Amino acid sequence: MPGPDEPGGAVTLTTVAKVESILYGDRKVFTVSAFNRGIATYLAKLPALWVEGEVTELRRNEAWATVFLTLKDPKTGATLNVTIGRRAFDRLDLALEEGETVHVSGRAELYELKSELGFRATTIERIGLGGHLLALERLKRQLAAEGLFAPARKRPLPRLPRAIGILTGADAAARGDLVTTIGTRFPAARVVVCEARVQGKGAPAAIAAALRALAAHPEVDVVVLARGGGSFEDLLPFSDEAVVRAVAAASVPVVSAVGHEQDTPLCDLAADVRASTPTAAGALVVPDLRELETALDGSRRRLVLAVRGLLERDSAQLTRLGDRLRAAPRLLLERRRSALDHTGARLQALSPLATLGRGYAIVRAGAEALRSTASVTPGDRLDIELASGALGAKVEDVRP
After folding, report:
1. Partner residues linked to 381 by β-bridges
2. Which one of 49, 177, 277, 383 has the fewest beta carbons within 10 angstroms of its own beta carbon?
3. What secondary structure letter does DSSP report for 387?
4. Of 207, 211, 172, which is closest to residue 192 (Cα–Cα)?
5. How far is CA 271 from CA 163, 236, 320, in A?
6. Of 376, 381, 383, 379, the residue nearest 399 (C-alpha)
7. Quick one: which H or E segment has residue 98?
8. 24 SS3 class
9. DSSP annotation string for 153-177
């Protein structure tokens, strides 16, 4: 490999594994492997440095010891392959996304087998959005500690809201999708739209004020916070502390439909329900009229069957009661006749006539029934009543 520092144009690179050349007369020739190893050794002597670029093609796997990514220069399109140890990458806990701009510290290296230039990183730092992300993470932890994101404080959405409040910017697509979905699903729904500045300076204060105004509307039972997709900076107002606190403090349930599925502004965490898109939010806040009609038809059929069954049961019960009512006088008369016969039999058994019928007699001295011989004297007149007829008698002898 020719170089200016050695006669004959040959450069000797020294490393742990010496790069050997092959002599052809006075010519030193290096194999491809030796050449690549020499370049790699030379690159390893270069100092560590920082490289800036956008993250693309980030690849991480639990089974790999190395994380692979590509840095891209957005101005020229130039790219640089970067590797970093998986454990070192995981300790950084960056949660990098495609397109983020970062600073990477490390050294140049050469993959000898394919002579591919790369960059072995030791650390990675966000720039630009990094400060915002760190601030948002701190705010997220603070608000979570206060309980603003707690599942227990989430409120259910009303089944049939009197009016739906829609807070949006001058974003015809998001507002149009939401209003169209609501109108298609439930044409009778009433919508109250409040436009506010949702991007740039002053947007957080405008969003918070509009949200409070909508929640205070006398007929609004639910508010949808809607905004179409945008860059990270575009969605920052929806992670502002004032907006997040306004969402959590709203007097009616709030549905957050901000950005796309992959976007997660802090207002999503404070809202009672998160919707991936404005269209999805429309499906959440009102029922589908056709589903309601189907359910109503089903309820009507069940009600008819229930009433019919109740009428049939009541009719059968009335028939049974009628039969019992018609039979009641006869049963009562029979019971009374039986009781009367029983009472007559008892009276008959207790009657003096029954006693006389068994061969006894009733003896009276005057008007009183005679119970003792002390009540009469010889010569007294007695009346003797028999079971059949009576006798008159005179006392001739009294025995004690």
Report:
1. 394
2. 49
3. S
4. 211
5. 18, 16, 61
6. 376
7. none
8. strand
9. G--PPPSS-SEEEEEE-S-HHHHHH
HSE value, Cβ hemisphere, 13 Å, CA-based, for 75: 2
Question: What six digits make up the tokens of 49?
Answer: 């440095």
- Listed as own residue / partner, the contacts of 53-62 with beta carbons closer than 8 Å and 24 or more positions apart are 53/79, 53/80, 53/101, 53/102, 53/104, 54/99, 54/100, 54/101, 54/102, 55/96, 55/97, 55/98, 55/99, 55/100, 55/101, 55/102, 56/98, 56/99, 58/96, 58/98, 60/86, 60/89
Helix (H, G, I), strand (E, B) or coil at 138: helix
User: Is 208:242 a contact under the CB 8 Å cutoff?
Assistant: yes
Tell me the pLDDT tens digit for each residue of 153-182.
999 999 999 999 999 987 667 788 889 999
Residue 110 · residue 37 · CB < 8 Å: no
Half-sphere exposure of 263 (CA within 13 A, CB side): 23
Is the Cβ–Cβ distance between 215 and 252 less than 8 Å? Answer: yes
Do residues 369 and 363 lie in contact, with contact meaning Cβ atoms separated by under 8 Å?
yes
| Local structure of residue 151 (DSSP, 8 states) | G
Residues 6+ away with beta carbon under 8 Å from 109: 40, 43, 44, 117, 118, 119, 120
* Distance between CA atoms of residues 310 and 145, nearest Å: 56
Q: How far apart are CA 217 and CA 12, in angstroms?
A: 83
Report pLDDT digits (tens) over 107-165. 999 988 888 899 999 999 877 655 667 778 889 999 999 999 999 999 999 999 999 99
Q: What is the pLDDT at residue 129?
A: 57
- Residue 264 burial (CB < 10 Å; 0-12/13-18/19+)? middle
